[in-house]
Amino acid sequence: MKLLAKLEQAGTTMKWLYGIAGIVLVILLWTLLTYGAEPIVTSGILPSPIRVFWAFGELFQQNALLRNMGLSIGLNLSGYLEAILITIPVGFIIGLMKFPRFAFKIQVDAIRYIPLTAVTGLFIVWFGIDTDMKVHFLAFGILIYLLPVMVQRIDEVDDVYLKTAHTLGATDWQTIKTIYIPNVLSRLSDDLRVLTAISWTYIIVVEGINSNQGGLGALIYNVGQRQGRLDKMFALLIIIILIGVIQDRLFVRLDKSLFPHKYQAIESFQASRIRKESLVQVIFKYAVSALGWSVAAIYFLLMLVEFIPLTGGFRPLSYFFGNTTWVMHVLYMGILYISLSNWYRHRTDQIALQQAGVKTHDV
């Protein structure tokens, strides 16, 4: 067992080392292609890493990078929230009820072929050119992929669970609540992670409309295409990649909190093995936990400033997230509720185990 634990730790370390080595090789190759007075690839096609590095500082100082990042993140999460709130009830209605399924199944399968860039004009006519239009456009872009997938996930629910529920005399609502909802939503969360990259593509497209509102897409359009600053464009692309990676990791953490049954087999297997965490792992674990709660506390204080004029009328969250600030509040409260519920459940389980141990010892 100890040997397996050491091999697992070594494998994790090697993955990190390979990842870092790959990044270093890309940077070295990039430097080689752009080095010298007469580089292999000219700066008009590919700027040097040094120029891109200095472009980050210019973006912070000259182009309000943090605010534009906040506007794009708020838009992204708003579109996700709207798409999810529409997809889940509509998907269950079409997937579980006969008449809606027969009436709309073909249309649901067909909407994924709609070219979104071609309907941008329709959204402008319907909703104008402000934030509402951008949120609806992004939500529609996610929905046309997510809705057919959700109907497919409903069809993929294993019959053995349904037969067991009917055998036990479960009602239709009990079957939906205990079988369909956990199975479908836990699989749908993986599909949402896949759509992260697609959502950022649509954000860049839609933020080019009325670019005065800001956002990373508007910033790419203004400093890149208008000013011809390829170094800033590459810097912004790197930032979008980093945001996407962080967003993906946060989706994984949220997925583990919402659907722990997906990870029970892995956690049980790991718990059954003799493992001893190193000091570095323990420190990193508690540092991540402390950082998460610190961010939650800071956001709570900033949220109070939104409603109580403690800073002379300046509202930091509204400055960074614009008209999507209320969505950030909703998501924050939801995540905080999930975190506290998981902590309370874990604490209750620990107390129950301790009481059971005491009773066993007394006997």
How would you sum up this structure, described in words?
The protein is mostly helical. It has 14 helices and no strands. The longest helix has 38 residues, at 325-362. It is globular, with a radius of gyration of 25 Å. The protein starts with a helix and ends with a helix.
What is the average of the pLDDT values? Answer: 80
Q: Largest sheet, described in full?
A: none
Element-level helix/strand string: HHHHHHHHHHHHHH
Strand content: under 5%
Secondary structure tally, helices: 14
Q: What is the share of helical residues?
A: over 70%
**Shape call:** globular
Q: Any idea what the radius of gyration is?
A: 25 Å
What labels would you give this structure?
363 residues, mainly alpha, 14 helices, globular
Compact description:
The protein has 363 residues and is mostly helical. The protein has 14 helices and no strands.
List the helices and strands and how they pair.
Blueprint: H1 2-34, H2 49-62, H3 65-96, H4 98-110, H5 120-127, H6 131-155, H7 159-167, H8 172-206, H9 216-226, H10 230-258, H11 264-271, H12 279-307, H13 316-321, H14 325-362
